[in-house]
Structure of DUF3617 family protein:
Amino acid sequence: MKTPFLTVCMSTLLVGSAFAQIPADMPRPDPGLWQMQTSIVQMGGMGMSYRVCIGDDVDDLLMQPEEDVECRDLSYRRDGNRLIYNATCDADGSEAKVEGVFTGDVRRSYQGNITTTFTPPLEGIARTDMTLEAQWVGACAPGQQAGDVIIDGMPGLPGMGEIDLEAIMKQLEQMQRR
């Protein structure tokens, strides 16, 4: 079964919203350059590796959702060394229920398992199960600004929010048909 690119991107965006809205009394990722790796079970473990420059504002952790993605019913709780995150989001005409379980010190490294259930299915996908590993690398590179993303194997992408994901998705679908 193919997992459409937009669904994968949407799952990643929803995960970014988890750390962008951490309550003030919980640990937050340190500013600097972070190496992140994601993989999606429904894609046979295929994933993405990228580096992102995080500023003092954790909103830079991952690119922010499109204007038509809104989350509500956000909740966080601690269970021992785990941070558990739940949210309900409206994403591209679908309701996405997100549950994430994160471990690690969060300031310098963390791991997570994130399950997102889409109702109705988003582009035919009812559920994604993603793993995420993040490691603080050090200071952002000279000239790099908060929010700049470098996807491994691609040139730097400042202003990541300017990428047209739908155009990329259409190109990928055309490539898969060849």
User: Anything to note?
Assistant: Residues 1-7, 60-66, 156-167 have pLDDT under 50 and may be disordered. The first helix runs from residue 5 to 20. The helical segments are 5-20, 165-177. The radius of gyration is 16 Å.
